[in-house]
Amino acid sequence: MATTSTEDEGEGPTRKRRKLDEGGDRKLDEMKPGIRFNEKMSGELHFNNHPHHCHLALTIESRDVQKMITLDKEHSAQICGTVICKAMSEHPMTVLYGQFQLLAKSKDKIETRESIYKMVLTSEEGQSYYLYGKKEFHKDSAFEMGMTDTTELNLIVYEGTDVSNNGRAVAEGKLLMTWKDFMKDMLNIEVINSQSAMEKLKWKAKFGRFYMGIIWETYGMLTAASSPFDPDSPPREKRPLNVKGIEPEVFWFETNDGIRLPLIRYKGGTKGPLMLAHGMGVSSRIFTLDTIDKNFVEFLVEHDYDVWVVEWRASVVMAAHELQHNFDSVAKNDMPMAINRILTKTGAKDVQVVVHCVGSITFFMSMLSGQLEGKIRSIVASQVAFCTIPSAVNWLKAHSRLTKILHGLGVQGLSAYTDSKAGIMSRALNMFVENFTDATTPFDEHCDNHVCHRITFMYGLMWKHKNLNPQTHASLHEVFGYGTATFFKHLSACMRKQHLVDEHGNSAMYLPDFDSRRRLESKAYMTHMKRLDLPIMFYSGKENKAFPPEATLRAYERCEEAFPEQDYQRLVFEGYGHLDHMMGKNSEEDIFKKLLPFLDQYSLPAASQDSLGTAV
Q1: Is there a single domain that holds both residue 351 and residue 468?
Q2: Residue 462, number of CB atoms within 10 A of its CB
Q3: What is the DSSP string of 229-288?
Q4: pLDDT value at position 81?
Q5: Are 457 and 387 members of one domain?
Q6: Are the C-beta atoms of residues 394 and 460 closer than 8 Å to each other?
Q7: 464 with 575: CB under 8 angstroms?
Q8: ∠ CA 474-479-484 to the nearest 5 degrees?
Q9: What is the pLDDT of residue 16?
Q10: Are 31 and 138 within one domain?
């Protein structure tokens, strides 16, 4: 390694060593083996919808190849080179400052790697530009090998020198590298800061193994799924809830069959009170995720709602969730007792509710059986209500009587939870479930997470993976857990009839004469439907693979035909599935804000101040 020094008389080895030491961290860093390679890309950038040719000739240099291939978050390589684009300047522009990150894990997309290019340019005309480029590495089809992702750069051009300083995007487009140029650049990779031919060869080999290893991990056909959670690892650091500094209060109630359950209150204001009910096999955590920027509870508190979240008996954080109950017991006990507790505490005469999946099914069972008459102001029903039309896969599982057979063989339930320390039987189940999900879901929804596979096997595909961020996807084990055989049996019975039935498959308790063509003339049918003569918003994800949108459509149509003057509304969200509406990285903009007008329309202030009582 050459160093700059003067050979003045009297300057010996000690003096030279002192000068090297005084060079500081930069000199020491330059002593580490680095790597340098070139890239040439051409394509079109669109300025005001007009295409203009653009050509990049870049040199990328890392002064520490070890940090680069270990994906050190603090490390970035330098970019220098030229950019030619007549729409930006009549003359070639030099990259004044550039940073490059190689194959980093995406913060926004699941099982996606990204190579990031950031460059600052100044034209001879005096205009500054900030260029942000990204190559995305993600397997989108069974036989994709990454050739397009490797050679395609998506580029955005901003005015100014930093997008964070309110720089305006003026152009975007796609630049391509020919496969021939890519291979040439790979072969001409240069190891720098090393005089040893053997060391250069070693680092070239290490870099090549790293790069091709990531490509194989991303696009290889034989890569195995994994359980990302290590139970021996330290607890994940979680962000605090952003609820205006409110301390949540817990209020316990006991059901008629002796189960003690909590309501968690976030008193964000005078709107409501509003109760949230989760689905089966999860808990209220679906409403309070810390892995997205703003969860549903935070959103509601921000908009001044008095929010009450119920952990009913299927909640995976409650001991009762492993007991063999059915939906009838929830409808008779949990939902009415929760509503009564809220009314007693707040002094309100009625409650707004947002209910999801099996939480919605059991809530409508309570409504239709007369457990909640006069106590509900409005309902928002997520994904399903009282018409339980299943997806094709769930229809097949329900009609095969699979859960009944397994229960008869002694299987008490199934858990979505698994981890890296799973035993041999659990690993065998993981392998079976992975093959099942691969066979029953589109390729672009395949992933390498065993917990996700189990969830899909148990309930159907719960989301479009593109809507979840990697942090949420990696922490699914914190949200999902055990579901009992008796709950699955009752769910299957409802799916077979495509409407609410009791545990024996009978309709009389909830929707007598439901399938009759003369149902509107049926006193029994209309008596039960009259209990739904109140404002209801039904909504579905268009890509729901558990209960397709037809489930809420039929419920909406039945309510409309019975009471055409009532305020029934329905929304279908494009690009969303069953649960990503609540857990998605963009749920606030795409979902929550669309539900707010209906909630606000019926968010009358509580009738009176809180009655006396204390949180237990």
Answers
A1: yes
A2: 25
A3: --TTSPPPP-PPP-STTPPPEEEEEE-TTS-EEEEEEEE-SSEEEEEEE--TT--GGGGS
A4: 95
A5: yes
A6: yes
A7: yes
A8: 125
A9: 36
A10: yes
Residue at 517: amino acid letter:
R
Handedness of CA 342, 578, 489, 418 (dihedral sign): negative
pLDDT band at 459 (very low <50, low <70, confident <90, very high): very high
C-alpha 359/C-alpha 382 separation (Å) is 9
CA–CA dist 422, 401 (Å, integer):
28
Helix and strand totals (H; E) in the chain: 21, 19
My answer on whether 282 and 166 are in the same domain is: no
What span, in angstroms and rounded, lies between the C-alpha atoms of 469 and 100? 23
- Return the pLDDT at 222: 54
For the chain, report the end-to-end CA distance as a whole number of angstroms. 71
What is the model's pLDDT at position 223? Answer: 58
**In the predicted model, is pLDDT for residue 27 greater than 90?**
no
Position 163 scores a pLDDT of: 67
Domain range for 539: 249-601
Q: Do residues 466 and 533 share a domain?
A: yes
Residue 236 lies in a domain: no
Q: Is the pLDDT of residue 493 over 50?
A: yes
pLDDT class of 604 with cuts at 50, 70, 90: confident
Mean of per-residue pLDDT scores for the chain = 89
| Residue where one domain finishes, among candidates 197, 219, 241 | 219
Pairwise pLDDT comparison (13 vs 582), residue with the higher score: 582
Binning pLDDT at 50, 70 and 90, where does residue 372 land? Answer: very high
333 vs 50, 183, 261, 365, 492, CA distance in Å? 64, 67, 11, 11, 21
pLDDT score recorded for residue 550: 98
Question: Among residues 336, 335, 348, 338, which one has the least CA distance to residue 271?
Answer: 348
Residue positions counted in the chain: 616
pLDDT at residue 463, as a whole number: 97
The SS3 of residue 521 is: helix
Query: Considering only CA atoms, which of 335, 236, 376, 241 is closest in space to residue 296?
Result: 241
**DSSP state, 195?**
-
Tell me what pLDDT residue 425 has.
85
Q: Do 281 and 458 contact (CB within 8 A), yes or no? A: yes
Quick one: tokens of 412? 């008490």
Phi/psi region, residue 383 (left: phi>0; alpha: psi -120 to 50; beta: rest), is: left
